């Protein structure tokens, strides 16, 4: 690959100065970040473990309160008492609820206590009637089954974990089984709610250098935030923004929280399904490394500016001319031979520019000569193919006129000569492309001549939409195809032949279809056509199917009338060749035939009007 002097100097400067500086700055930045993250993570791990111990102490203190309460002699009698009347039951309920207040509300964090006896009675404290959980709703809750399985050990529920068990999303809930102390029989389920104010005091007393940007969270194993020290994220799912790996005692990683890059430290609380999470803004944690990165970026920017100034002031003045010639050479390689270099001065660069101009001019002249030679070759090839059709048709027509003259059919001879004159007038015209209307006049004249010659041998029908009449077609396209049906398709059949000529538009093309009900062609005859050269030059061969059908390729190669190729395929092959040469590989003939079922030929040509064709020829010639 070509590299000019300026590019080499820039590459050398970037490779030996800019890239090492970038690598040094990048490595320094990432190493400092990793060091900061590691140091901060170690410090935070110890802090979280201390907070975890404090949290366990708070929960243990509440557990001690509930232990003392459910074993209190003041509460135990109400686990089995049974009133004999409604008045006694009401009195017993009041006494039980007063006992709940005395034994449980000695701790300021306790907010609500309810005792659900297994026999259907319920005692509660300090909650309006509309917010009390009905007995049947609570006793069927899955948490009751977990409490029974714990056999007296408390089950803790964080805020938002079981919203149907609490009317307040700012409390922790304890559920535990209550036993009778004398028999250790299961008697009731205790529901106790604890305020989280103690957590606020505990976290607020923790020294945090990032307090204005950081927060502490308590999250469940499923990622739900049970507690947020800043009272913003309660009830949200932490795993969606900063997923952590469960069952790992401690982990530290970076993530996004509230559209802010943050550092997460996650500590699994012992003997619990809760996680203590510390969240700190990465900007506040990595302030020092960010300052270093800015200095490194500034040095790199100054180095880049210096490199650009050096290139503009010293290198560009010397290499501008060479770069201009290289760009012009690339344009010439893409086919633009009109490019010329500007000549100024009288040095080696000027001589190089003059040599380039001379070379491009010579190449342009040679290519124009080759183009004219190819055009002459194409016209000669078209003329040769058309000459192969004219003598064959003229010989058959004159033979027919001769027979009529011998039979003294003067009127028919006159009509046939008139029709022949119409045919010759179109055939010898200079224009290669004519309107479909004139091609149909030529075809009707030919069919009338053949009808005079072969009476009662065939009939024909032409159904072509009139709006297609003015579109262009190669002259003498349809007549050889119809001639093939008359001369070979109806030979030896015991029924009146019929030829149908139709046309339709299809995706920007015109499809002309010639069908006959003649004797068709055998598989051997189709195979002979395929072997005789009716295949395109790109390797797509004409194929003979098992039922005897032949699908002719879009384009056919030049066909020689020598060897095994008979007249049956000569006219059709000539038409296919002319279409290929005039319109290209996308157009041509399709042939389908079976013995006894006739033959169908489809001719596909582009949909060009006469004006469009003349414009295309004018541009090609100019």
Describe the protein.
With 622 residues, the chain is α+β, with helices and mostly antiparallel strands. Helices cover 49% and strands 19% of the residues. The chain has 14 helices and 19 strands. It has a five-stranded antiparallel β-sheet with strand order 2-1-5-4-3, with helices on both faces. The chain has a five-stranded antiparallel β-sheet with strand order 7-6-10-9-8. Strand 6 and strand 7 form a beta hairpin. Helix 11 runs antiparallel to helix 13. The longest helix has 66 residues. About 6% of the residues have low confidence.
What are its keywords?
alpha+beta, membrane, 19% strand, kinase, 622 residues, five-stranded antiparallel beta sheet, Sensor histidine kinase
Helices, strands, pairings?
Layout: H1 5-70, H2 86-104, E1 110-117, E2 122-124, H3 135-139, H4 142-150, E3 155-157, E4 171-179, E5 186-195, H5 197-204, E6 215-220, E7 225-228, E8 250-257, E9 260-268, E10 274-281, H6 282-285, H7 287-333, H8 348-406, H9 410-427, E11 433-435, H10 436-453, E12 458-463, E13 472-474, H11 478-489, E14 497-506, E15 509-516, H12 523-531, E16 543-544, E17 550-551, H13 567-583, E18 588-594, E19 598-606, H14 610-621
Helix pairs in contact: 1-5, 1-7, 7-8, 8-9, 8-10, 8-13, 9-10, 10-11, 11-13
